[in-house]
Fold this sequence. Notes:
Radius of gyration: 23 Å
CATH superfamily of the largest domain: Aldehyde Dehydrogenase, Chain A, domain 1
Number of strands: 16
Amino acid sequence: MLDSATEAGSIEALMAAIGQRARRAARSLALAPAEAKNAALEAMADAILQARETILAENRADIERAKQSGMAASFIDRLTLDAARIGAIADGIRAVAALPDPVGSTIAAWERPNGLQIERVRTPLGVVGVIYESRPNVTADAGALCLKSGNAVILRGGSDSARSSAAIHAALAAGLSQAGLPEDAIQIVPSTDRAAVGAMLKGLDGAIDVIVPRGGRSLVARVQDEARVPVFAHLEGLCHVYVDAAADLDMAIDVVVNSKMRRTGICGSAETLLVDRAAASTQLLPILEALRTAGCEIRATDEVRQRFPTAEPASEEDFDTEYLDAIISVALVDGVEGAIAHIERHSSHHTEAIVTADEAVAAAFFAGIDSAILLHNASTQFADGGEFGMGAEIGIATGKMHARGPVGVEQLTSFNYRVRGTGQTRP
C-alpha cells in the first residue's frame, strides 16, 4: 500500500495503468459465461472464509488506528468485522452467485408491422469505480456485484479501512484466479493519496463508465461536484418513520425502535419520528419510553416535550441532521398529509416508513412521497439490497436517472437494441 506522500506523477501513472487493465478485463468479462462468473464467486466466498483470521487481524489494526484518531463510534461500528460479519460477507457473495445472470437477458421484445424483430437486451456498463469509507465489506459486495453483472471494478477504500479492505481483496483475487478469470476484473487502488480519487473522478482517460461513492456527506459531495462520469449516489440518509393514528401500538414500538436502534450508523437508520397528533395521547409516550429504554437520546419539539419533559429541545437543524448515532428527532404532525409535508421539507429522499392499519392512509403516504424506498409496517433498516433479495448492494441511489434505491446486479447493467430483419429497407 502506497502512502499519501506518493508523488503526483506516480499516482497519475499508477491510476492510468489500473484503468487500462480494468478496461481490458471488462472486455473479457462481457463475454464470460454465467458458469465462469458463478464459479469465481463461489471460489471468492471460500477464500474469504479461509482468510478469516488474516482479515480479522488486519481489521483489528484498522480499528486500533481509528480509535487513536478519535473516530466516532458510528464509524467504528461500520469499520468493525467479526466472525459473524465475515460469514455474512461470504454468504452475500454466494447469494449473488445464485442470482440469474442479467447479462444478455431480454428486457422487452416486439415486432414491427414491417416484420423487424426488436429486442432490448441487458449489457454490462463496463468499468465501475467505487470510492468508499470505513466499510470493508463494500470491497466484497462491490466486487461480487460487478463481476456478476459483467463489469470490471476499481475499488478505492478509505485509509481507515485500508488493511481490512486489502485482505478481503486478496481473497477475491484468489477466487478470480482459481476460476480462470482475469484478476484485473477487481482491482483495489494501492494508495491512500487523495489524488487517486481525483484521477478516478476524471474517468481515467475514459476507462471508468460510472462512479459509486459510499461514505459521508463530504465524500459524496466531492464526487458529485468533481466527477466527469455518471454517479450513482446519495448525500445522506435522513430517514423518517411516521406513526399514524390507525397504527397498532405494539407494532409501532417494535418498528420505531428497530428502525433507530438496530444499527444506528447505517444510512437506513431512522433519524426522525413523526407521530399523528390525533394519537399523541395514546401512542407518543409508550414509543418514546421504549426508545429511551433502548438507550436513545430524544430531541423533540416543545409540543412533544410538554408531554415528555425529559426530551432535549430539538432545533430546526436537528430535523435536517443525519445523526448516525443513538439520537432521534421527534415531532407531532396532522395526519398523513402533515407527515408528507414534513418529509418533503426535510427528507434526503432515501427511505421513509409508515406504521398504520389503514390501507388508504398507507396508499396516500406512498403516493405523496418521492423517496427511493417506502415501507409500510416495516423497519427502515430493511433499506438494503441483501434484504431486497439482491444478494448485496453496491450502494443506495437517491437520484432518478438509471438507478434508484439499492444498486444491485440489474442496476449495474445498461442495454442495447438488437434488431433482426429479413432484408427490409426503409422507404
